[in-house]
Design brief:
Blueprint (H helix, E strand, L loop, with lengths): L3 E2 L4 H15 L19 E6 L5 E11 L2 E9 L8 H15 L4 E7 L3 H6 L3 E5 L9 E7 L10 H14 L2 H4 L3 E5 L3 E5 L14 H22 L5 E11 L7 E6 L16 E11 L2 E13 L3 H7 L1
Parallel strand pairs: 4-5
Antiparallel strand pairs: 1-2, 2-3, 3-4, 5-7, 6-7, 8-9, 9-11, 10-13, 11-12, 12-13
Helix pairs in contact: 4-6
Bound molecules: coenzyme A.
The site of coenzyme A has 19 residues, from helix 1, strand 4, helix 2, strand 5 and helix 3.
């Protein structure tokens, strides 16, 4: 699976810019150095490496004003195109734009990449000023009106949330919602008001349920990523509480906390995944949940009914 990285070291940046030059400047005989501009220092950069450590996808974002962010220099190595890498980079950049408070995301796209940006929800607004003489560009815009629109795999996330609400109705009463999924992290949130105890803080049982569902949901999404199916059951769960929740209940499960593999499912065998879920109150960590989940193979008949 591919992971989004942020270039940090000098070497990271050298590889990052080389990739940008190779894809976006060299083919038109522009000199080395022409791949950089005056916004590099104030931009956020993201990249993806392959299993050999070579940079195979890059992209950048900077704020044009307090509410407008601009995406530039997205490129994917020819051998890696069509695998969803540009989409991953764009989702990461869009997430930065939202965190910075942007409500408009703009890009100046070459003719050839217009379908890519259209597939990500951008619309052509007007012809863009022409920086490099020959290459005609269109200014494209995406409005970011809803701050917690799910960026990656919104359909899978909707299926997950509907599954919770249908099969565990109390999850809806608790106001548990998927907040964001990045491919590596699932964040859920719950309503404090709906889970309040006599001390005015969140009921511990609700926190446990939020953590369990978040771990369960992360396994559900990872199975989807791998094109697998399975029945997910909690075998063991422990939670350590450090502080009460008094404001905004949040739960985060990161793939780095996974211990276990899904390979057994391919041989019709049960698998076990250990994972951790961090519970936060706003930005303050307040509890940690460790869970051991079993994933049971689903019989072919049941699988057919599900598909
Ligand atoms: C444009 C580019 C970044 C797309 O990268 P990619 O990794 O192949 O794109 P993805 O696989 O993430 O595709 C995401 C979506 O865009 C669509 N898409 C991508 N390129 C497309 C094309 N040329 N025509 C139609 N659709 C396209 C995909 O079908 C996919 O749609 P889906 O989500 O509905 O399935 C890549 O082709 C590239 O690097 N081109 C050269 C550099 C460039 O022009 N960069 C843009 C800077 S202005």
């Amino acid at each position: 699976m591919y992971k989004i990285d942020t270039p940090i070291s000098e070497q990271d940046f050298a590889q990052y810019f080389e990739m940008r030059w190779k894809m976006l400047r060299q083919p038109w005989n522009y000199p080395l150095g022409s791949e950089k501009d005056e916004y590099e220092q104030v931009s956020q950069h993201r990249m993806i490496r392959n299993h050999n450590g070579d940079v195979v996808a890059v992209g950048r974002i900077h704020m044009n004003s307090s509410d407008e962010a601009q995406v530039r220099h997205i490129a994917v190595d020819k051998e890696y195109q069509g695998k969803g890498l540009a989409k991953l980079i764009l989702a990461a950049l869009e997430s930065v734009a939202r965190e910075e408070g942007a409500i408009r995301l703009v890009t100046n796209s070459r003719q050839i990449s217009i379908p890519f940006f259209e597939s990500a929800g951008f619309e052509i607004e007007k012809e863009a000023p022409n920086e490099f003489g020959k290459l005609k560009r269109q200014q494209m815009v995406k409005r970011l009106s809803s701050p917690n629109t799910i960026l990656l795999h919104p359909k899978w996330c909707k299926t997950l949330q509907d599954t919770w609400y249908e099969t565990i109705p109390i999850s809806e009463q608790m106001g548990i919602k998927i907040y964001q999924y990045s491919g590596r992290t699932l964040e859920t949130r719950a309503s404090l008001n709906k889970n309040i105890n006599l001390h005015g803080t969140m009921f511990a049982g609700s926190i446990f349920s939020l953590a369990t569902l978040t771990g369960w949901g992360m396994i559900f999404l990872q199975l989807k990523e791998k094109g697998l199916v399975g029945d997910i059951v909690l075998g063991d769960g422990n939670i350590h509480f450090h502080k009460p929740i008094t404001m905004q209940p949040r739960a985060l499960c990161n793939i780095e906390s996974f211990n276990g593999k899904f390979d057994g499912l391919l041989k019709n065998k049960k698998c076990f995944i250990k994972l951790q879920v961090a519970i936060l109150d706003g930005d303050t960590p307040v509890a940690e949940f460790s869970g051991l989940f079993g994933v049971l193979p689903i019989s072919e008949d049941a699988e057919e009914q599900l598909s």
